[in-house]
Amino acid sequence: MISKHKISLALLDITLLVAGFSLSFWYVFDSGLYGSARAYPPYFIPSIIVLTVIFLVVFQLNGLYKYQAIANPVHQVQSLLKCYFRVLAAFILLVFFMKTAYIADSRLTIGLGFLFSFTFMILARVLTVPLVFYYFVDKGIIKKRALIMGAGEHGQQVLDHLRQSHENYFEIVGFCDDNPNLLGTYAFGFPVLGSSSDIPQLKVQAKIQEVIIAISNINRGDLVALIERCKEADLVIHVISNLFSHVTEKLEAEAFGGLITYRIESRQHGIVRAGIKRMIDLLCSALALLLVSPVFCAIIWAIKSESRGPVFYRPTVVGKGEKVFLTYKFRSMIPENSPSPEEKQAYEEGKKRHLEFMQDFIQGRVKDAYFVENECRITKVGRFLRKYSLDELPQLINVFRGEMSLVGPRFCSVTELSFYKPWQKRRFQMKPGITGLWQVRARSDVSYDDMVALDLYYIQNWSLLLDLEIMLRTIPVVIFGDGSRIS
Q1: Please, are residues 65 and 59 in contact by the beta-carbon 8 Å criterion?
Q2: Which helix (H) or strand (E) element contains residue 447?
Q3: Cα separations (Å) of 273 from 154, 232, 368, 402?
Q4: Has residue 285 been placed in a domain?
Q5: Is residue 159 assigned to a domain?
Q6: Same domain for 447 and 300
Q7: Which of 34, 196, 214, 474 is buried most, with the most CB atoms less than 10 Å from its CB?
Q8: How far apart are CA 191 and CA 460, in angstroms?
Q9: Which one, of 253, 251, 259, 71, lies nearest residue 158 by Cα?
């Protein structure tokens, strides 16, 4: 169900857009201020309708109908500028591909329409609407029923901040806490309604719309699990925690009386966007395989020249939905079935050390070195390939086959999956990628929990633009071997 404030804002936007573009047509054609007065062109009404529809769609996609956009004038000006440039680009492409004068043939008219409507938007949305919004908030007409998760000291601080803020649109209905001794009692004047496991039922019973997570003594895994539980209940989540220090750059921040929260909304990856992502993966992987084929030949020659054994290493890994598949990598270690007893022994010892390390690493028992040092199984060629991530080039085959994506979370081996904490398995909600957020943001400098947290952030905030950003940032990382586990 579309909320009343969104309908009201959309009607206001339609009025402002129609007024702005009608004024531009009047000025150019009917006012006599720009040449002699003449009849309105046939594209007068069609162009205004097309532009208004594009604007409304772009505004919706950029979150201009959310409470948070209304309440933040600076953010709204920035968003309006972005939206206007995007609409202009979309309109130019539409006119170019349709090649018709029935939508527009006067650049002055369209340009003035953008200028006039933007001026109206600033006057209304930035200067007037926030005043009306806060008046309604102050009168209790606009409110969101919210539950504070955490009935401790941190929860009390949040409650005090919200009480003191005139910009606060939350109607606090109570607390939620996993301490069984608090259930059924009152905390700071509000009832403790249940535990985190009761969130789906509390949403219905107390008509909760949003959850404020205000717990200071919670580990990352429990926090991620709690956020996922709230998302499954289709609740808007506000996190007040320093546990996401690696990933807060793109979370939407809000301030209430000096209190900073990071808002997370449940997002679904649309079929259209997923289809576009798959099409990009297919085309780019096919082109890349063609372009790097000489590099493939050189690497194959180098591997064969140094040691006997297969060129490719094909481990069974875990991907989307915890489904297993064979991935392709250039072999960078001595062969597992080497005829040399010394090499075979070194391989088995190295494999054992690696598994022991990964178990400790995944379960958070490693504090300093986040990779196996002095890995004895790696060959000279393999060391070079790993330093510049060239050993992963054959994974383009997996991308072409649809088992992987160019950008996505990291896969793991079947054995490593057995070491996973329950919350870490949430990284398998999307296809694994050749590159990803943690590879370009941290690589070998963070704990395994942080790696998974970055993957979960990518899943929550995924967009085609984010994919493009990650791919562009991957280039210098690969060229210079930044953050490589191989020195």
Answers
A1: yes
A2: none
A3: 39, 21, 40, 16
A4: yes
A5: yes
A6: yes
A7: 214
A8: 32
A9: 259
- Per the structure, the complete domain to which residue 130 belongs is given by 4-138
CA distance 193 to 185: 8
Contact 148, 138 (CB under 8 A): no
Helix (H), strand (E) at residue 398: helix 395-401
**Cβ-contact 208, 415 below 8 angstroms:** no
Contact between 168 and 137 under an 8 Å Cβ cutoff? The reply is yes
* DSSP tag of 318: E
Q: Which residues contact 440 (CB under 8 A, 6 or more apart)?
A: 470, 473, 474, 477
CA nearest 307: which of 262, 265, 273, 343? 343
* Matching residue, tokens 């933007």: 118
Backbone Cα Rg of the chain = 28
The pTM of this model reads: 0.66
- Domain count of the fold of the chain: 3
Question: Cα(423)–Cα(425) distance, rounded to whole angstroms?
Answer: 5
Amino acid at 45: I
CA dihedral 456, 460, 462, 463 (to 10 degrees): -170
Token output for 98? 């349709």
Q: Is 428 helix (H, G, I), strand (E, B) or coil?
A: helix
Pair of tokens at residue 221? 């895994």
pLDDT at 253: 60
339 and 210, same domain (yes or no): no
Q: Is 384 exposed, middle or buried (0-12, 13-18, 19+ CB in 10 A)?
A: middle
8 Å CB contact between 113 and 25: yes
- Evaluate whether residue 79 is within a structural domain: yes
The helix/strand/coil state of 105 is coil
* Dihedral angle computed from the Cα positions of residues 474, 480, 482 and 487, in that order, rounded to the nearest 10 degrees: 140
- pLDDT score recorded for residue 67: 72
Amino acid at 360: D
> Do residues 394 and 328 make contact, with C-beta atoms less than 8 angstroms apart?
yes
Contacts by residues 54-63 (CB-CB < 8 Å, ≥ 24 positions apart): 54/87, 54/90, 54/91, 54/94, 55/13, 55/17, 55/83, 55/87, 56/10, 56/13, 56/14, 58/83, 58/86, 58/87, 58/90, 59/13, 59/83, 62/86, 63/252
